[in-house]
Design a protein that fits this description.
Layout (H helix, E strand, L loop, with lengths): L2 E6 L6 E6 L7 H5 L7 E7 L3 H14 L3 E7 L8 H13 L7 E6 L1 H13 L5 E6 L2 H7 L7 E3 L2 E5 L7 E5 L8 H18 L1 H9 L1 H5 L3 H21 L15 H10 L7 H18 L5 H13 L12 H10 L9 E4 L5 E4 L4 H10 L3
Helix pairs in contact: 3-4, 5-6, 5-9, 6-7, 6-9, 6-11, 10-11, 10-13, 11-12, 11-14
Bound molecules: nicotinamide-adenine-dinucleotide (NAD) and glycine.
The site of nicotinamide-adenine-dinucleotide has 30 residues, from helix 4, helix 5, strand 8 and helix 6.
Amino acid sequence: MTFHKLTVALQSRSYPIYIGSGLIKTGSAVELMPILRGPNGVVVTNETIAPLYLEQVQKWLHDAGYKNRAIILPDGEEFKNHETLLNLYQEMFKAGLQRNAFVCALGGGVIGDLSGYAAATYMRGVDLIQIPTTILAQVDSAIGGKNGVNMEGGKNLVGTTCQPRVVISDVDFLTTLPEREILSGLGEVLKYGLLAGDDFISFLEMNKNEILARDSKSLATMIHFCSRIKADYVVRDEYDRLGVRAALNLGHTVGHALEKLYDYKEFTHGEAVAVGAVAALNLACEIKLLNDAGRQRALQLFADFGLPMRIPEAVDVDNLIEIMHRDKKAEGSLSMVLLHGLGDPHLEKSIDLPLLKDVLQGCKQ
Ligand code: NAD
Ligand code: GLY
């Protein structure tokens, strides 16, 4: 078995991330799984993923001596709420889980966030295993410990930061991912390219065709790059309080507002982040933080991967800015992550609103 391994180094909360093909196969759990507090747990997944991978994962855990039952949730962001969470607690209780139990999240970011929150709070916290099955979850949501549920007032309004014991990113799971979910994950991947700079951007430029064809070696290298970048930000600012981890929100200020404006029905998260990243590139260029060559190289990458780059003509830009203000990340004045060069992100605290309005208007062409 060949795989990439890296460690999220957080003292007593440190954990490994394994990335590769064929990771979830007979016998490998003995090598990849940490020693958990107890032998009993649950695998939490959804109705779409269960028929594809549940049996394989349950057997894999059994082989390593970890007894487990399955909890299958409905599929969809609309179920990432307190009602589903309460059902999850009840199923965990019915399965007889004690304080030394484990929760294994098998799915995308929705399952990861729900399972992570349940694991962090059930009997004041049990072990969490993340087995992410989307690109977005492998490069982002499964790493770093953020979890939570949505409420009427907005997304992820309630949650904790609680690190998993291990993350296992098997790229074989990505073979069944719908095309649009691949694209959504790639929106976040390209964001990492902008954060990291030349090395990763060059890799993406040179391996575009292989990545889009889902070549497992290229996917594993790409996910390894992203996981390393994410882990580095998490280690420097685990609780997102120092303004360091905030750089991961590049493209998200405009992206979140766009998702919300369309009631989460028009853009996937990664698509909205792509449009938001383009807006941030244009703004950084306008205020001469980023040169035009850097901007053009970045825009080419988004175009090459087929990501959306424009704000729809029908969008009222004043309305979009109003939503950005209401976003929980906009504390006081409007802040945005802007690049001072490819690979050089900074959190800019007081964005010039008339200029932002012009830039957003320009993103419609
Ligand atoms: P998702 O979990 O909804 O998965 C997308 C769709 O793909 C679902 O229908 C799912 O059933 C299906 N699917 C998943 N894996 C599959 C596979 N291998 N084969 C076939 N179908 C598969 O969406 P997502 O994009 O993975 O995650 C989005 C969620 O992640 C949002 O709720 C967001 O708030 C959260 N998120 C959390 C963090 C964090 O740090 N915790 C970071 C980013 C996003
Ligand atoms: N997805 C942003 C973060 O984990 O901080």
